[in-house]
Specification:
Elements: E1 12-13, H1 14-20, E2 24-27, E3 35-36, E4 38-41, H2 45-51, E5 57-60, H3 65-73, E6 78-81, H4 89-97, E7 102-104, H5 109-118, E8 122-123
Parallel strand pairs: 4-5, 4-8, 5-6, 6-7
Antiparallel strand pairs: 1-3, 2-7
């Protein structure tokens, strides 16, 4: 399932996720109308590559450059960092280059996933 625009019935716009999870939009603010229907939470980028579907929102505590490389290779919709994590300028530069929206929430991973699931987002795992 590809990310869609706000006119679609299912899913949440990144702007809604921003508001729901008290997120800071670190980069990609021009893409807040992007709608996601699924998310994938992991800190092991090998798990993301092996098990996530394309076009899902990655929820992670790993704020290193690997998260952006992984999101790019796996064709993910964007990255949501948990625990107030903020990536370095190098990470942000790559995210901007790859046109990946990046948000940061003060919430823990479990709480962020629970809130998104309560709003109807599904897990974005393969098979």
């Amino acid at each position: 399932m590809t990310p869609t625009r706000a006119t679609d019935a299912a899913g949440l716009r990144l702007a809604e996720i921003r508001d729901l999870l008290d997120c800071e939009v670190i980069c990609g603010g021009h893409r807040l109308d992007l709608v996601v229907t699924e998310c994938f939470a992991a800190d092991l980028m090998s798990d993301v590559l092996a098990f996530s579907k394309p076009h899902v929102l990655l929820i992670t505590g790993l704020a290193g450059i690997q998260s952006v490389h992984t999101a790019d290779v796996a064709e993910l919709a964007g990255i949501l960092f948990v625990h107030h994590k903020h990536p370095s300028q190098q990470v942000l530069d790559l995210a901007r280059e790859r046109n990946l929206p990046v948000l940061s929430t003060p919430h823990h991973m479990f709480d962020a996933c629970a809130a998104l699931a309560a709003k109807g987002l599904r897990g974005g795992s393969k098979g």
